[in-house]
Amino acid sequence: MSRGLFITFEGTEGGGKSTQIKLLAERLRAEGREVIELREPGGTPIGEEIRHLLKHSEANGAMTAETELLLMCASRAQLVREVIRPALAAGKIVLCDRFSDSTTAYQGHGRQMDLARVREVIELAVGDTRPDLTLFLHVPIEVSEQRRRAREQAQPQLRDRFEEADRAFFERVEQGFQTIACAEPERFVTVDATSSIEAVQVSVWHQVAAKLS
Ligand code: TMP
Protein backbone atom coordinates (compact mmCIF):
# COMPACT_ATOMS: atom_id res chain seq x y z
CA MET A 1 0.00 0.00 0.00
CA SER A 2 1.32 3.46 -0.83
CA ARG A 3 1.95 6.01 1.93
CA GLY A 4 -0.89 8.44 2.54
CA LEU A 5 -0.74 12.21 2.35
CA PHE A 6 -0.03 14.57 5.25
CA ILE A 7 -1.55 18.05 4.91
CA THR A 8 -1.34 20.72 7.61
CA PHE A 9 -3.18 24.03 7.96
CA GLU A 10 -1.55 27.05 9.56
CA GLY A 11 -2.28 30.68 10.29
CA THR A 12 -3.24 33.14 12.97
CA GLU A 13 -6.82 33.36 14.25
CA GLY A 14 -9.67 34.05 11.87
CA GLY A 15 -8.37 32.39 8.71
CA GLY A 16 -11.12 29.76 8.82
CA LYS A 17 -8.84 26.74 9.20
CA SER A 18 -11.41 24.49 10.84
CA THR A 19 -14.08 25.31 8.22
CA GLN A 20 -11.69 24.61 5.36
CA ILE A 21 -10.48 21.36 6.91
CA LYS A 22 -14.08 20.19 7.26
CA LEU A 23 -14.90 21.09 3.64
CA LEU A 24 -11.77 19.48 2.30
CA ALA A 25 -12.38 16.31 4.31
CA GLU A 26 -15.94 16.10 2.91
CA ARG A 27 -14.72 16.47 -0.66
CA LEU A 28 -11.95 13.91 -0.26
CA ARG A 29 -14.35 11.42 1.33
CA ALA A 30 -16.83 11.98 -1.51
CA GLU A 31 -14.00 10.91 -3.82
CA GLY A 32 -13.58 7.71 -1.84
CA ARG A 33 -10.47 8.67 0.14
CA GLU A 34 -9.96 7.76 3.78
CA VAL A 35 -9.38 10.96 5.75
CA ILE A 36 -8.64 11.77 9.36
CA GLU A 37 -8.97 15.23 10.87
CA LEU A 38 -6.74 16.26 13.76
CA ARG A 39 -5.88 19.36 15.74
CA GLU A 40 -2.86 20.55 17.65
CA PRO A 41 -2.20 20.77 20.47
CA GLY A 42 -4.43 17.75 21.05
CA GLY A 43 -5.69 14.93 18.85
CA THR A 44 -5.00 12.13 21.38
CA PRO A 45 -6.28 11.67 24.96
CA ILE A 46 -2.87 12.75 26.29
CA GLY A 47 -2.68 15.61 23.81
CA GLU A 48 -6.14 16.92 24.75
CA GLU A 49 -5.10 17.07 28.42
CA ILE A 50 -1.96 18.96 27.43
CA ARG A 51 -4.14 21.30 25.33
CA HIS A 52 -6.25 22.12 28.37
CA LEU A 53 -3.14 22.81 30.43
CA LEU A 54 -1.71 25.09 27.73
CA LYS A 55 -4.84 27.03 26.92
CA HIS A 56 -7.42 27.03 29.68
CA SER A 57 -6.09 25.68 32.99
CA GLU A 58 -6.20 28.13 35.90
CA ALA A 59 -2.61 27.21 36.71
CA ASN A 60 -1.15 28.23 33.37
CA GLY A 61 -0.60 31.92 34.13
CA ALA A 62 2.81 31.02 35.53
CA MET A 63 3.87 28.93 32.51
CA THR A 64 7.31 29.74 31.13
CA ALA A 65 8.09 29.86 27.40
CA GLU A 66 10.29 26.76 27.78
CA THR A 67 7.47 24.79 29.40
CA GLU A 68 5.09 25.92 26.67
CA LEU A 69 7.51 24.78 23.94
CA LEU A 70 8.03 21.38 25.55
CA LEU A 71 4.31 20.81 26.11
CA MET A 72 3.46 21.70 22.50
CA CYS A 73 6.07 19.23 21.33
CA ALA A 74 5.05 16.57 23.87
CA SER A 75 1.50 16.67 22.50
CA ARG A 76 2.94 16.42 18.97
CA ALA A 77 5.29 13.53 19.79
CA GLN A 78 2.28 11.56 21.03
CA LEU A 79 0.10 12.47 18.04
CA VAL A 80 2.79 11.57 15.51
CA ARG A 81 3.37 8.10 16.97
CA GLU A 82 -0.15 7.22 18.12
CA VAL A 83 -2.12 8.51 15.14
CA ILE A 84 -0.28 10.17 12.23
CA ARG A 85 2.33 7.53 11.38
CA PRO A 86 -0.11 4.58 11.53
CA ALA A 87 -2.63 6.52 9.41
CA LEU A 88 -0.05 7.44 6.77
CA ALA A 89 1.27 3.88 6.71
CA ALA A 90 -2.32 2.72 6.05
CA GLY A 91 -2.54 5.06 3.05
CA LYS A 92 -4.90 7.59 4.67
CA ILE A 93 -4.99 11.34 4.15
CA VAL A 94 -4.21 13.19 7.38
CA LEU A 95 -5.48 16.77 7.77
CA CYS A 96 -4.04 18.55 10.79
CA ASP A 97 -5.11 21.94 12.19
CA ARG A 98 -1.63 23.33 13.03
CA PHE A 99 1.67 21.42 13.33
CA SER A 100 5.37 22.26 13.71
CA ASP A 101 5.20 25.57 11.84
CA SER A 102 2.99 26.92 14.64
CA THR A 103 5.77 26.12 17.11
CA THR A 104 8.32 27.94 14.95
CA ALA A 105 5.97 30.93 14.57
CA TYR A 106 4.50 31.16 18.11
CA GLN A 107 7.28 29.88 20.38
CA GLY A 108 10.25 30.72 18.13
CA HIS A 109 9.22 34.10 16.73
CA GLY A 110 6.33 35.07 19.04
CA ARG A 111 8.01 34.18 22.34
CA GLN A 112 11.43 35.06 20.85
CA MET A 113 13.06 31.77 21.78
CA ASP A 114 16.29 30.63 20.17
CA LEU A 115 15.21 29.29 16.77
CA ALA A 116 17.91 26.60 16.57
CA ARG A 117 16.84 25.25 19.99
CA VAL A 118 13.19 25.31 18.96
CA ARG A 119 14.07 23.37 15.80
CA GLU A 120 15.87 20.71 17.86
CA VAL A 121 12.84 20.14 20.10
CA ILE A 122 10.53 19.97 17.07
CA GLU A 123 12.84 17.41 15.46
CA LEU A 124 12.77 15.25 18.58
CA ALA A 125 8.96 15.31 18.48
CA VAL A 126 8.40 14.66 14.77
CA GLY A 127 11.47 12.74 13.55
CA ASP A 128 11.00 12.30 9.81
CA THR A 129 7.22 12.84 9.88
CA ARG A 130 6.86 16.08 7.93
CA PRO A 131 3.87 17.55 6.07
CA ASP A 132 3.70 16.95 2.31
CA LEU A 133 1.80 20.21 1.98
CA THR A 134 1.04 23.09 4.34
CA LEU A 135 -1.70 25.60 3.57
CA PHE A 136 -1.17 28.93 5.30
CA LEU A 137 -4.59 30.58 5.46
CA HIS A 138 -3.62 34.19 5.64
CA VAL A 139 -5.71 37.09 6.94
CA PRO A 140 -4.44 40.55 8.01
CA ILE A 141 -3.69 40.98 11.70
CA GLU A 142 -6.72 43.30 12.16
CA VAL A 143 -9.06 40.51 11.02
CA SER A 144 -7.41 38.10 13.45
CA GLU A 145 -7.83 40.58 16.28
CA GLN A 146 -11.53 41.09 15.56
CA ARG A 147 -12.05 37.34 15.52
CA ARG A 148 -10.26 36.91 18.86
CA ARG A 149 -12.33 39.67 20.46
CA ALA A 150 -15.59 38.19 19.15
CA ARG A 151 -14.63 34.82 20.61
CA GLU A 152 -13.78 36.31 24.00
CA GLN A 153 -17.17 38.05 24.09
CA ALA A 154 -19.07 34.94 23.01
CA GLN A 155 -17.35 32.70 25.59
CA PRO A 156 -16.08 34.94 28.43
CA GLN A 157 -15.91 31.96 30.80
CA LEU A 158 -13.44 30.10 28.53
CA ARG A 159 -10.16 31.88 29.13
CA ASP A 160 -7.50 31.22 26.46
CA ARG A 161 -3.96 32.09 27.50
CA PHE A 162 -2.77 32.60 23.91
CA GLU A 163 -5.50 35.10 23.16
CA GLU A 164 -4.27 37.26 26.05
CA ALA A 165 -0.99 38.04 24.27
CA ASP A 166 -0.40 41.58 23.00
CA ARG A 167 -0.42 42.81 19.42
CA ALA A 168 3.38 42.83 19.13
CA PHE A 169 3.36 39.09 19.87
CA PHE A 170 0.91 38.40 17.02
CA GLU A 171 2.93 40.63 14.69
CA ARG A 172 6.01 38.51 15.42
CA VAL A 173 3.98 35.31 14.86
CA GLU A 174 2.82 36.66 11.48
CA GLN A 175 6.43 37.52 10.62
CA GLY A 176 7.41 33.98 11.60
CA PHE A 177 4.91 32.46 9.19
CA GLN A 178 6.10 34.82 6.42
CA THR A 179 9.69 33.71 7.03
CA ILE A 180 8.69 30.05 6.63
CA ALA A 181 6.75 30.94 3.44
CA CYS A 182 9.91 32.49 1.96
CA ALA A 183 12.15 29.61 3.05
CA GLU A 184 9.95 26.70 1.87
CA PRO A 185 7.68 27.92 -0.96
CA GLU A 186 7.18 24.41 -2.38
CA ARG A 187 5.65 22.99 0.78
CA PHE A 188 4.30 26.04 2.62
CA VAL A 189 1.72 27.68 0.37
CA THR A 190 0.00 30.94 1.27
CA VAL A 191 -3.74 31.11 0.55
CA ASP A 192 -5.53 34.47 0.73
CA ALA A 193 -8.23 33.73 3.31
CA THR A 194 -9.91 37.16 3.15
CA SER A 195 -12.20 36.08 0.29
CA SER A 196 -15.39 33.98 0.58
CA ILE A 197 -15.39 30.48 2.07
CA GLU A 198 -16.13 29.09 -1.40
CA ALA A 199 -13.25 30.97 -3.03
CA VAL A 200 -10.80 29.82 -0.35
CA GLN A 201 -12.12 26.27 -0.79
CA VAL A 202 -11.32 26.43 -4.52
CA SER A 203 -7.75 27.60 -3.80
CA VAL A 204 -7.27 24.88 -1.18
CA TRP A 205 -8.56 22.21 -3.56
CA HIS A 206 -6.28 23.44 -6.35
CA GLN A 207 -3.24 22.88 -4.11
CA VAL A 208 -4.41 19.53 -2.75
CA ALA A 209 -5.42 18.11 -6.13
CA ALA A 210 -1.86 18.71 -7.36
CA LYS A 211 -0.60 16.36 -4.63
CA LEU A 212 -3.10 13.55 -5.19
CA SER A 213 -1.95 10.66 -7.32
P1 TMP B 1 -6.42 26.84 18.30
O1 TMP B 1 -6.53 25.37 18.16
O2 TMP B 1 -7.67 27.48 18.75
O3 TMP B 1 -5.79 27.48 17.11
O4 TMP B 1 -5.45 27.09 19.55
C1 TMP B 1 -4.16 26.66 19.56
C2 TMP B 1 -3.33 27.78 20.14
O5 TMP B 1 -2.04 27.26 20.44
C3 TMP B 1 -3.15 28.92 19.16
O6 TMP B 1 -3.19 30.14 19.86
C4 TMP B 1 -1.75 28.70 18.62
C5 TMP B 1 -1.05 28.01 19.76
N1 TMP B 1 0.01 27.08 19.33
C6 TMP B 1 1.31 27.38 19.65
O7 TMP B 1 1.59 28.41 20.26
N2 TMP B 1 2.29 26.50 19.28
C7 TMP B 1 2.03 25.33 18.64
O8 TMP B 1 2.96 24.57 18.33
C8 TMP B 1 0.65 25.03 18.33
C9 TMP B 1 0.32 23.74 17.64
C10 TMP B 1 -0.31 25.92 18.70
Uncertain ranges: none
Which structural category do the helix and sheet elements fall into? alpha/beta
Q: Any ligands, ions or cofactors bound here, and which?
A: thymidine-5'-phosphate
The coarse silhouette is: globular
Order of helices and strands: EHEHHEHHEHHEH
Q: Let me know the number of strands.
A: 5
Q: What's the helical proportion of residues?
A: 40-55%
Reading side by side through the largest sheet, how are the strands ordered? Answer: 2-3-1-4-5
Oligomer: single chain
> Which value, in Å, is the CA radius of gyration?
17 Å
**N- to C-terminal separation?**
13 Å
The tally of helices reads 8
**Biggest sheet details:** 5 strands, parallel
Question: What is the typical, i.e. mean, pLDDT?
Answer: 95
Strand fraction:
5-15%
How would you describe what is shown here?
There is one protein chain. 55% of the residues lie in helices and 13% in strands. Strands 2-3-1-4-5 form a 5-stranded parallel beta sheet, with helices on both faces. It is α/β, with parallel strands linked by helices and 213 residues long. Helix 1 (17-30) crosses helix 8 (197-209) and helix 3 runs parallel beside helix 5 (115-126). Bound molecules: thymidine-5'-phosphate. Residues 39-41, 72, 98, 102-103, 106-107, 162 line the site of thymidine-5'-phosphate.
